[in-house]
Each structure stands twice: as C-alpha cells, then as structure tokens.
C-alpha cells in the first residue's frame, strides 16, 4: 500500500492515498484480509465476527466517506486514475454500508459466502514453509473458538431482532461442518491440514491442541445451529424480496438494475444458447439430444478425453494454463514476468462443488491459484473443464487480478485487490475471457465447445433463477418447467438440472449458492454484457475517428484501470485507447 502523497510519476494523488489508508484500516480490523494482501503482521489472529466487529467496519466506512467529501476538487484537468478511484470508493463504501447496516452480518449463514468458509479458506492460503509458519498456524487455530463465539453472538443478535437465515441455508451449513469434522479419519479438517507439518515437539503439541479446540468449537456451533437457531428460523423464506435484493445487487454488481429488463434478457440468452447447444450436441453425437451428448461426454470423454485421479487432473490443468500463457503471450496479451505465476491445486474437502480461484498477494509472495474440487468417482471429463479453466485461470481471473496486483503501487490497493473489487466486473471479465477464447478458435472440438456453451448456459440460467426465486417472478409460458407459475426453489432446481450439465451435486450446490448470495450470480452475465458493450463502443469510436482498433492494446488499457462498478464500467471501457504505444 502506498504511503506517499505522490505517485511514482510525481502525480498528486489524494484520493488514492485516502483509499490506501482505508485499506490499512480494514487490514487492521481483519487479519484474514491482511493475509490476502500479503501482509505478514497479525497472521496468528482472526477478525472480530461479533456485532462489535461489524460496528467497527461501519465506523471505518463512514469516516472514509466523510474524508472523501472533504477533499478539495482538482483545480485543473482531473487525473483519470483519481477520478475512477473516487467513484469506486464512494460507490463501494456506500454499498458496503447498506449491506452492513441492513442486518446482513446478523443472518450470514451461507455455505459459500459466509464467515465460516472465509475462515477456513484463510488457513489454506497461509504460508507453511517452516517451523515458524506452522507456529503461526497453530496460534491462529487457537483463536478459532473466539472467532466462532463472535460469529454466534452476531447470529444471536439477529435472532433477537427476528432476522434469520433461511432454514435451507442453516441445514446446509450444519452438513458442511459435519463434512469438515469428519475429515482426517474423524479427527477434523484442522488436524488433517496440520498432519504434514514437519515440526518439533512443541509446535506439534500446539498444532494438535489448536486443531482439537477448533474442531470442538465447530462442533458446538453446529449443535447450536441445529438445536436452537434452526427451530427459531423456521418459516423464514428462501427468497429475500425486492428491498434486500436491491441492496445485494448494489453490493455485488455496483449498479442499480431494471429487474424486469434483466429477467427478460436472461430468458433471451437462455433461448439463444439452448439453440446453439442443440447444434453442438449433434456434432458430438449425431442425432443426440443435449442431455444425451453431455452424458456421453461424461462417460466416454469424446475427443477431449477423461483424466482419472485428482492429482493427474490437477497436473493436466496446470499444463493447460502453461500452454495457454505461452500461446497468448505477445499476441493477444502481455503475459510476461509474474503474470506467469499461477498454480493449479486440489480444493480441500467440504468446498463448494464448482472450481474457484484465489488471487496472488500484491507482492506475489503467494501466487494466484485455481482450485479443482474432487469428483466422487475420481474421474474428470475434460469437455466442461477447458472453458472453466479459461475462466478461472488465463485469460480469466488470473490475468485480471494479477494484472491489477502489478499496478497496485500506481493506482491504489483498493482499486487493485479484492478489497474494492466489484464481483460483476471480476466475474464479467472471466466470462468475457471464455467467450474471447471461443472467438479466437479455441473450441473447435465439438466436446470442448459444448462445454463452453454449457458454461454460458449456466450463467444465463443463473440470471433467470436468481431473479425469479428472490423476487417471485412469473415463469414465461414457453418455459419447459413451470410455465405460468411463480418461481420456487424446487422449480429452480428442476430447471437447472434439465439445462445445465454437471450432475446432482453441482445443481444442489448452485441452488444453495443463489439463495444464500442473492444477486451475486447474475453478475457474471451482466458483467460480460458490460465488457462486450464497452468493447464494441470503443471499436465504434475508433472507427468514427478513422483509427485502427487494436484489441490487444484495448485489453491492456482495460486491465490497467483497476476495478469498477457496472454503472461506470461501460463508459470507461468505451473511452479507452486501443493503439499500441
């Protein structure tokens, strides 16, 4: 994070300095966030998950917004990096304040987006290269009971206010804890995580004690959720309704939306992609339906193949990323230096069913990583993993987030890390990256292209189901499921299972994801639409000036600007230069 009042080029940067100061305050409140940024201080601690911790976050956001308001306006032409940072800071802190003060932290029981998942992921990202690292892990494990007590206090405050998570989410989180505590031959995930530590007797004893206490605290939380919280939450609806959805949409997507327009557009995308999938299924297996073609690819692999064994699949995906970097570098992107540092890893047990990505530390002391969840049969058909790894790795999440890390000292940490990142910008770029690879001809194999279309279908279905279930929207008359009815989770699960490949576990996990994180899932397609619209407007602007549009140069300029909410992304993308210097 920047400590000076001028940038590396001598530019005056009061807004970016304020943004960096805000990140420092957040890192002081949240040691997990500090570790994500590559800071080594207080990595033996955990954040305060109690109502007091939420209150401290609220105070920090309000204070930074007040200081932003007090900054003098620039006398001359405004630095575009300063302008973008000011808009991002104001929008993001406003959205976070709405989220925090509306009571969401007091009902945050969710499989994927809740505090428990964040807490466990923090351990998987800690350095474990020597005795001192493991001593820090042991010290952090010892604080898990305190962190869980604070989390329980927040849920208790929500219960006092009559604000609950939906029972379906609570049941899933108890199942998730059961899965974690069953790991390591019943000793628990924390014990299994520390099994390979080559340490002396004292640190070993601390690790064993910390793992035992953390596992016991998780078990106590699980029992409280099941026996006290769940009965009290009975009757809480799965859908959040329009008011909570509006706040959630701003939080995840950085925009206000016309829900009717987005819902209709989601259906149009569903219909378009469905037609393409029918054609591609016939190329995979002549005369086959989409479902039958995907079943064939799951069983046989087709020309894309099947990899047996998690480690073999991990190695294959690593090689795929390395090959993609070599092919794209110097042609469509600059992928030199630290941008090449990306690892493929196996996800720990109890993770969500879908692959995911964790970004590098800003100093690249921790590389970017893609994570592959285990399949129950330990077989990994590649037809639907190829496009997924373009999304999670290169040119998707890794290229964008690692590019931001490289610019963090020129912009601000807030603009170039997940602290200020807008989910729809990040996920929209990654979905745009999948489409770009199709445009560049990387899905000439019919199985691979059906996998790409299946990934596109997943995101279109997300728009329809997420909006439909939370806002209780009517299902169109031409829908193959529930025509004329209002959406329910049961109809959403049936619709998903009919139109997206991946199996029952994937469908169940996705449904819980939409219900537990309203409006997050619609950001993929909304973000992709914004990136595509910005690209075409930039292309048209260049044509109007008689200038050549260089897509690689436009990509570089787009990645250099840091994150933006969807309200600002399209106009900024449309104005970017697209010529090589």
Automatic annotation (TrEMBL):
<dbReference type="InterPro" id="IPR010281">
    <property type="entry name" value="DUF885"/>
</dbReference>
<dbReference type="Pfam" id="PF05960">
    <property type="entry name" value="DUF885"/>
</dbReference>
<protein>
    <submittedName>
        <fullName>DUF885 domain-containing protein</fullName>
    </submittedName>
</protein>
């Amino acid at each position: 994070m920047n400590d000076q009042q001028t940038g590396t080029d001598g530019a005056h940067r009061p807004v970016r300095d304020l943004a960096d100061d805000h990140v420092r305050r957040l890192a002081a409140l949240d040691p997990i966030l500090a570790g994500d940024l590559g800071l080594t201080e207080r990595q033996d601690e955990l954040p305060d998950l109690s109502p007091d911790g939420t209150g401290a976050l609220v105070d920090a956001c309000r204070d930074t917004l007040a200081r932003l308001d007090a900054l003098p306006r620039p006398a001359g032409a405004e630095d575009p990096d300063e302008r973008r940072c000011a808009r991002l800071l104001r929008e993001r802190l406003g959205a976070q304040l709405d989220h925090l003060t509306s009571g969401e932290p007091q009902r945050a029981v969710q499989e994927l987006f809740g505090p428990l998942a964040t807490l466990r992921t923090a351990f998987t990202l800690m350095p474990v290269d020597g005795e001192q690292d493991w001593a820090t892990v042991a010290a952090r494990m010892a604080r898990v009971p305190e962190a869980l007590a604070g989390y329980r206090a927040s849920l208790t405050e929500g219960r006092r206010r009559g604000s609950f998570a939906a029972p379906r989410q609570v049941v899933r989180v108890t199942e998730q804890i059961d899965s974690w505590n069953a790991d390591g031959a019943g000793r628990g995930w924390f014990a299994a995580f520390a099994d390979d530590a080559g340490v002396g007797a004292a640190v070993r004893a601390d690790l064993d004690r910390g793992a035992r206490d953390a596992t016991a605290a998780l078990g106590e939380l699980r029992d409280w959720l099941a026996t006290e919280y769940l009965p009290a939450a009975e009757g809480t609806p799965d859908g959040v309704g329009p008011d909570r959805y509006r706040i959630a949409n701003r939080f995840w997507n950085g925009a206000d939306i016309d829900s009717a327009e987005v819902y209709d557009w989601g259906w149009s995308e569903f219909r378009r992609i469905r037609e393409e999938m029918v054609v591609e299924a016939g190329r995979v297996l002549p005369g086959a339906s989409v479902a039958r073609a995907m079943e064939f690819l799951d069983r046989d692999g087709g020309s894309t193949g099947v990899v047996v064994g998690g480690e073999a699949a991990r190695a294959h995906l690593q090689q795929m990323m390395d090959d993609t970097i070599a092919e794209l570098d110097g042609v469509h992107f600059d992928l030199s230096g630290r941008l090449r540092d990306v690892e493929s890893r196996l996800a720990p047990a109890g993770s969500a069913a879908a692959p995911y990505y964790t970004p590098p530390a800003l100093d690249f002391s921790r590389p970017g990583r893609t994570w592959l969840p285990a399949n129950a049969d330990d077989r990994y058909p590649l037809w639907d993993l190829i496009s997924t790894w373009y999304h999670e790795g290169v040119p998707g999440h890794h290229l964008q987030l690692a590019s931001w890390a490289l610019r963090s000292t020129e912009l601000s940490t807030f603009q170039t890390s997940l602290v200020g990142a807008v989910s729809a910008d990040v996920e929209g770029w990654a979905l745009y990256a999948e489409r770009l690879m199709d445009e560049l001809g990387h899905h000439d194999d019919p199985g691979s292209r059906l996998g790409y279309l299946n990934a596109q279908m997943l995101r279109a279905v997300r728009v329809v189901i997420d909006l439909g279930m939370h806002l209780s929207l009517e299902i169109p008359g031409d829908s193959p499921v529930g025509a004329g009815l209002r959406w329910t989770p049961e109809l959403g699960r049936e619709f998903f299972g009919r139109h997206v490949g991946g199996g029952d576990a994937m469908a169940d996990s996705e449904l819980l994801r939409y219900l537990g994180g309203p409006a997050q899932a619609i950001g993929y397609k909304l973000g992709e639409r914004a990136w595509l619209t910005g690209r075409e407007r930039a292309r048209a602007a260049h044509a109007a000036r008689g200038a050549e549009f260089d897509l690689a140069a436009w990509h570089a300029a787009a990645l250099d600007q840091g994150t933006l909410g969807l309200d600002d992304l399209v106009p900024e993308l449309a104005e970017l230069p697209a010529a090589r210097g």
